[in-house]
Amino acid sequence: MDFIREWWAVIWAAVLTGFNVIQLLLAKTYARREELETVTMAVEQLKNKVAELPDSRENHQLQLEISELRGELHALREQLKPVHNLANLLLEERLNVRR
What is the dihedral of CA 37, 43, 49, 54, to 10 degrees? Predict the structure, then answer.
């Protein structure tokens, strides 16, 4: 008993130091609850965004529609060539009249 009374402060300091070292090692090894909740929320947001993306079937359908639009644009371009030529002739005539 005398030993404990005499060395009480040193024993208590050693116990607290050991406890603090253990806490430090655990803090370096494991994530805090707040950090884990933040990461969990970010993962959930990413899951929601991925769920909104089109699947492979919808993606294929979009590719088909885009290729159809390309064909229609090429056809429209061919139909607009005479209009473009006519507009150029009208512009040229208008410029010649002003001179």
Answer: -150
In total, the chain counts a number of residues equal to 99
The string of pLDDT tens digits covering residues 3-27 is 888 889 999 999 999 999 999 988 8
- Contact between residue 8 and residue 15 where contact means Cβ atoms under 8 Å apart: no
Q: What is the pTM of this model?
A: 0.45
Rounded distance between C-alpha atoms, residue 18 and residue 93, angstroms: 97
Express each pLDDT in 48-71 by its tens digit.
999 999 999 999 999 999 999 999
Instruction: Give the chain as a DSSP string.
Output: -HHHHHHHHHHHHHHHHHHHHHHHHHHHHS--HHHHHHHHHHHHHHHHHHHHS--HHHHHHHHHHHHHHHHHHHHHHHHHHHHHHHHHHHHHHHHHHH-
| Cα(14)–Cα(12) distance, integer angstroms | 5
